[in-house]
Amino acid sequence: MNRLLLVAYPKPYRSRQGEEVLACLAEAYPGRSWPPPREVAALVRAGVQARARATVDDTTRPWWLDGIHLAALALAALALVPYLQDVWHWALRIDPGQHAIAFRFSGWYPWAEGPTQVRLLPYGLLPLGCLIALLRGRAWIALPAAAAMIWAGATSPGRTLFGDEGKAGLGYYGLGTPITARDLALSGALCAACAVLAFCRPSRLRRRSYRWLAPVVLAMSVAGSLHIISVSPAFQRGWFALEAAALIAAWVATDATGDHRWLIPVAAVAIVRTQAIVVRPDAFMQSFPDLVVLILLTAPLPALAFTAQRRQGPALTE
After folding, report:
1. Rounded Cα distance, 167 and 152, in Å
2. Distance of alpha carbon 135 from alpha carbon 165, whole angstroms
3. Per-residue pLDDT tens for 190-220?
4. DSSP annotation of 169
């Protein structure tokens, strides 16, 4: 089990010092397959810092381009989350029946008609395709997928390509903030980010392994098997914990390097979600008080900026 902790470290570090770290853990905690929680947190923190330093040391691309790439990945994941169950059911030809994600359509698609009309594809395929293309550094493929998300949200209901769920279905509800596909701020920001990536030296984009899709597939299988929808308490708590972990990782990376690239995805997600609260306050689920949610959304931005500035101060004096 100790080898799982090494995943937090970059591959060159694992090749050089992985066995040494495992030997130290075996000597410090004999007979235990897993170190104490404090040691686990310290190892993961050190791994995030090592990955952050390796990213900053790679000068093949400017920091702002890498930041926009991270922002596009975060926005694509944000758009995909509400439709994990839907895409899983469609891919395996599972009839969701009464477990359809609050969509009027509940038939087995595209081979059976539901209460309204048949659809050909689930809307979630668009952000999923955009996410896969961005992971592989193919912004020219992600751009039309993001543009199709805008088209699906802007067109009137009744089309049979994605059905009605792309417009009237439930959207993202992390921290009680609903973002439906009809809200074009998310898809518009994603399309803008993909356009920048596609026209600003796309060959320099970082290409990540398909192994990064493993958490997405796992989330799809869990959501599809357990019928966890985006309004369930389990979804709310799980996604909140994941967001908190991502923010902590961004802070650790910024504190270790003083680089501003991790501020860009945090700012993009915060702006999109804050816009959803301001524009549609009536749709707010009140899982947290409004002021608490707005503080949680906006507080990480000055915190990350201050951390980067503080970290860069000693480096400049040296």
Report:
1. 7
2. 26
3. 999 999 999 887 667 888 888 888 888 988 8
4. S
